[in-house]
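ok so for the tutorial part 2 we go from a plain amino acid sequence to predicted structure tokens. step 1 is just haveing the sequence, like this:
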Amino acid sequence: PREARSRLEVHGANELERERRQTAWQALLAQFTSPLISILVVAFVVTFLIAEYTDAAVIAAVLAINATIGFVQERRAEQSVDALMALAAPRSMVLRDGHLVEVDAAELVPGDVVELASGTRVPADLRLVRTTTLDIDESLLTGESATVRKSTDPVAADLLAVDRVNLAFMGTVVSSGRGTGVVVETAAGTQLGSIAQSIRAQERPTTPLQARMTRFAHVVAVAVLGSTAVAFVAGVALGAPAEEMFLTAVALAVAVVPEGLPVALTVALALGVRRMASRRAIIRSLPAVETLGSTDVIGSDKTGTLTANRMTVVAVWTPCAGHLAVGDVDVVDLSGPEPTAVVRTVVLSNEADLAHETDEDVVVEEHGDPTEVALLEFAVRTGVDVAAVRRDTAVLAEVPFESRLRLAYVVVDEDGAVLRAKGAPERILELCDAMGVDHEVVFDPDVVLAEAERMAADGLRVLATAQRRLDTEVDDVDPHAPPRARGLVLTGLVGMHDPPRRGVLESIRRCRRAGIRVVMITGDHAATARAIARELEIVDADDARVVTGVELESTDDSALEAIVAEVDVFARVAPDHKLRVVRALQAAGRVVAVTGDGVNDGPALKAADIGVAMGRSGTDVAREASDMVLTDDDFVSIAAAVEEGRVVFDNVRKVTYFLLSTGAASIVAIIASIFAGLPLPYVPAALLWLNVVTNGLQDVALAFDQGEPDVLDRPPRRRDEGVVNRVLWERTALTGVTLAAGSLWLFVWAIDAGLDAAQQRGAALTTLVVAMAFHVYNARSERRSIVATHVAGNRFLLVSSLGAVALHVGALYWQPTRDVLQVADVPAAAWLRIGVVALAVVLVSEGHKWWRSRGGVARLRDRFVRAAGRLSGR
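step 2 — the prediction. this is what the tokens look like for a chain of 874 residues:
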């Protein structure tokens, strides 16, 4: 113990350093770092300095609400991930002072001797000194589902670490057998630790939404500076006092900045997070919600993600009967002497165990190597009572599977000594001199090997079975010196594979319809990867190209960019290969999502635009590196998450367009009034009321829209596409001018009618409030008519629209709000005119949708080109 404590002080605790997370204060301050929020902060400072305290208070409230929603949602997501990672600290059996003691894995030091048993997790990197049929599942490091048989034999020094079978690696799990190893590396020095360090070295990319909002904020900043400069210079040039024009410029700045957008944006993202959580996907940061909607490539691991990580027998071949289809049905009829011989061999020469309810034969528990378990489950499906066969058949001797032997065999008492063997087809054939139970088939190894190769080409792992009745008497069989396996009779081939998860094929088809490409990136063999990819329609040809890690090693980055544009399957890849593939896809302008569950997936998960980790079977390292965690480990959830991501972006776009229309109307109205020599139609507080309160109810309600029916039938958005596209900028200009003209029409009408200044401003502001309550339904779809969106489709929006108008009408009659907004009630004669303006806004928007749907811009461009051609011809 004293030496252990001394080494612990030198080497440190055997724990991987977790990614440093933000403190609560850092997370809260991070909510104020977006460019749009920065503009609001500047607006708050300016309004406060010029003593417009009401305006400053409203802006401050917007900032506080936005920060609170974002902070609470992201901290809640972190708590959900922490709950997934809250596993008990592993403990290990260690030899100290000549006695086996149980200690925390964190206390292990180099030189400790650790005992391994079935089901235990390897606590550090160990050099094995004793093994007894030790099989270890290394899928979290390599991505391969097959276990690795370990030994104590020396290996070549130039082998990759994961190919050194005399080492056991931290984090891997013992599937079966026992072993003893000496700790050679702990914590960061382990293979697990080196991958974790690689993950920390990666920087998270800016999400598409963050990039779009940054560009949008720049547009808003330019509009603020441009409109205020024009207004100030024009006003002063027309003889207005500079102080009055400064206040006008402040009003314009308030009008341009969509104060309600940050809150509505945060609400839309938070709602997306909530909907995804109900579909078993935890989003760790709000902007990641929309990233899935922008994704155009999903790079997926195979084992445990696309497949079930559960081997299943799907084919049997016997010399007499030929190929026998098995599939994955519950009951398989394999009558006949040869199939029976195959089944008995895989049951008796098997180290796994099944526990099941005997009445219904329902498997409830399993122990052992996945391949061995798959063979027992296959026997159960053929109607064999595994427990009864084992109970009634005495085992005289057995030789467990060894990688150097490439076979396992057992000698059993079946009215005499019978040797039953299974193993690699080529190895079993070396020991055979006949095939067929009754030897009625001419022994032809080439026929058997051809069949084995055909099954392997289908992505199956192939085992051969054989048997021989021994001349030795049962009582003469020595369990410590089993007879050698030779002179065997081949009885058949068994093909098994790791089947695709249920629903994955349909999810991939949905992704394809959505314009999303699925790329398989796996550590498994090329033939297996190609077969699974073909089965899942990731590739459409049996000879589709598969690029291996060895090829990637000799390929530079520029050549890799050309490869990733064409190849959909990458096999036998190491963690750095997977990372390079992700980087190459991003370099080609793709928005890349990467799925994975193992430590080997960590660097790529963090470097991708969105990393999707598995929550149930995934590792802590993968979850730490990810942006999204699937609690059910189901690839099917990704297609649903993509749909939610697209709905979220659509809603963000709707909200932005809706609020931009208000800003455009306010700018046009104010600048027009300046040039027309009219009084200012709105004060800053009134514009804040419009942006934050009345419109604020409706833009939040827009975030609750469920999405349009064709949301997954559209191609992914380009990375450089803005929050508002060209179509909506056109529509913003048209509706903004219409709203401004209508508001000024009411303003001038009130002046001509002899109403006082408060009533004039009340008429102008009320026109905008009522028209926007109608216009919000224009915003529900970029393409579909307002009559096709169904008013009742978003009941919250209906209530919000009516509530906004009612709230504003109340404000016109309540003295405190009248004083703040500097408005008064509107006479009855104005309401009909306000209704006309609201209808005009709807008609203008509908006309633009119709014109766009008929290719109006293209026709206009063609006419312009033809006219220019005629003029140049003249």
